[in-house]
Amino acid sequence: MVQVGNVNYRTEADLPETVPVFPLTGALLLPGGQMPLNIFEPRYLAMLDRAIGTDRVIGMIQPRLDGALRPDGEPELCAVGCLGRLTSFSESGDGRYVISLQGIARFRVLEETPGREPFRLCRIAPFSADLDPGEGADEVDREGLLKAFRQYLEANQLQADWDSVSKASNETLVNALSMMSPYGAAEKQALLEAPDLKTRAETLVAITEISLARENSGDGGGQILQ
Predict the structure, then answer these.
(1) CATH 2.30.130.40 in the chain, residues?
(2) Which H or E element spans position 190?
(3) Less CB within 10 Å around the terminal CB: N or C of the chain?
(4) Structure pTM?
(5) What's the topology of domain 2-131?
């Protein structure tokens, strides 16, 4: 079971079969993670109005990595995204919405559904394993993950709240570090699609080690946290 805000999600039946989706390059939402968003485009304001009036669930997803476009010029979508529940909402006074999403479960796009709405809708298949939080967390190489994190901080002269890090569960640590990582769209998608926490942690460590090696060699291909 996953609790998000005031709602418990126990099975796939508790999740919508069709969701409005928000395509955003480089955005990574994972189960349990928190994502703040500043919404200003009219069609996505309409999407949030719909979500607020219904189940408060939207799908975060990246445009397809190869840049493919539909005939109408809209980007094709990646195959996998993550459902998020709207847990915080405020109006800015100048036409924007400032919101926070909490990740529920990943999903696979089955098909995009036509409709009259200005935003896009997809029929989805949720990853039911994500509704069993903590599964596989004991298999995470926490020491290796923290070593890579520490090396990244040192290389970029950054600090961390190590007290909070030490208290975080393996699941929270892996997903939080993945979401805050400074890497590109392809790396973010690989982290999202990792089949389990152990693989996600290993993927994050590998990406970090490659980035650090590039930085140490003077190769500008590394990407640094903004």
Answers:
(1) 2-131
(2) helix 185-193
(3) C
(4) 0.91
(5) 2.30.130
